[in-house]
Amino acid sequence: MIKSLRELQDFIKSKDNFTNFTNSSIVPDICKTEPCMLGVDEAGRGPVLGPMVYGIAYCPVNQTKVLQDLGCADSKALTEEKRDDIFTKMISEEDSLNNVGWIAEVISPNYISNSMYRRAKHSLNEVSMNSAIGLIKKAAESSANITEVYVDTVGPPEKYQAKLSEIFPNYKITVAKKADSLYPIVSAASIVAKVTRDHALKVWKFLEGLEIDQAGFGSGYPGDPVTKKFIREQIDHVFGYPMLVRFSWSTAELMLQEKAATCTFEDIDEPGSKKTNTKSISSFFAKPDEDKPRKRHKFFEERHLCVGNPFE
């Protein structure tokens, strides 16, 4: 269990920044017996750089004073220093340790982009919802007695709430826009997520060998001048961007089209489309026509490749 921001940074540095991972507190004993409320929020949904982090926090329903004493309010109105201060109290002060539990999932930019680009596309909303559902399940599996769940959302809350209610029928589910300003437990979750993301960026190590710290790439938001400069300059003609960049974002896509090598992909038949010149499976087992030469695949023709025997 981490007890300081330095230990948080050391924990993050020990993980591969191209994979997802979680970090969590010990479940307070009181949370195993008393009915608990749980809040869910994220940090880093919009940036073109860095991970997105989902956080949850939970505590007994009758212990809201602990959250108020911590200063959990609208996290977006808090400075980075104030969020660090509140999180430090959460992981070090006895009253918080005895009443408040939390979990954070760091979702890598590499995972986000690959999810959005794969053939069966996995949208950012789906990535977000799966993370939230997974964290709620993780809290329950760790013996926390969850009875109420409060979730912040940027989209229409009705569908999200219906989905969660279907998955967790025994919980009272509330999904609302700007929930972090309405419910202190969501604000606590937001602080967990934002502090984790802030420090993930501070200790980011480029596997590509770049010697750049956060001052060299900024906050990650597309409107940040430092981030804009990084996106414009740190692009390899062949390999594109380092894994810090969400290459599926339009900001990065447009720059790749302008400065990176052009890639040509073979067309993929859309589901339901009529396929032309499609052979039946049985045709592959038929006796070949020896008089008719076999046509070479265009992959080999375009690259002027031929069969050769190195032992001749």
Structure, explained:
The model has no long low-confidence stretch (mean pLDDT 89). The protein has a six-stranded mixed beta sheet, with helices on both faces. Helices cover 38% and strands 13% of the residues. The chain folds into two domains: 5-202, 2-Layer Sandwich (Nucleotidyltransferase, domain 5), CATH 3.30.420.10; 214-259, Arc Repressor Mutant, subunit A (Orthogonal Bundle), CATH 1.10.10. It is built from twelve helices and six strands. Keywords: Endonuclease, Hydrolase, Metal-binding, Nuclease. It is an enzyme of class 3 (hydrolase). A divalent metal cation binds at residues 41-42, 152.
CATH topology description of the largest domain: Nucleotidyltransferase, domain 5
- Class of the largest domain, according to the CATH hierarchy? Alpha Beta
Low-confidence stretches: none
- In CATH, the architecture of the largest domain is 2-Layer Sandwich
Which value, in Å, is the CA radius of gyration? Answer: 25 Å
Kindly report how far apart the N and C termini lie: 64 Å
Total helix count? Answer: 12
Mean residue pLDDT: 89
Beta-strand percentage range: 5-15%
Number of strands: 6
Number of domains: 2
- What is the overall shape? elongated
Structural class: alpha/beta
Largest sheet, spatial ordering of strands? 1-4-3-2-5-6
Approximate helicity band: 25-40%
Largest sheet: 6 strands, mixed
CATH superfamily caption of the largest domain:
Ribonuclease H-like superfamily/Ribonuclease H
Oligomeric state of this protein: single chain
Helix-strand pattern, N to C?
HEHEEHHHEHHEHEHHHH
GO molecular function: metal ion binding; RNA binding; RNA-DNA hybrid ribonuclease activity
Family: Belongs to the RNase HII family. Eukaryotic subfamily.
InterPro entries: RNase_H2_suA, RNase_HII/HIII, RNase_HII/HIII_dom, RNase_HII_hlx-loop-hlx_cap_dom, RNaseH-like_sf, RNaseH_sf
Binding site for a divalent metal cation: 41-42, 152
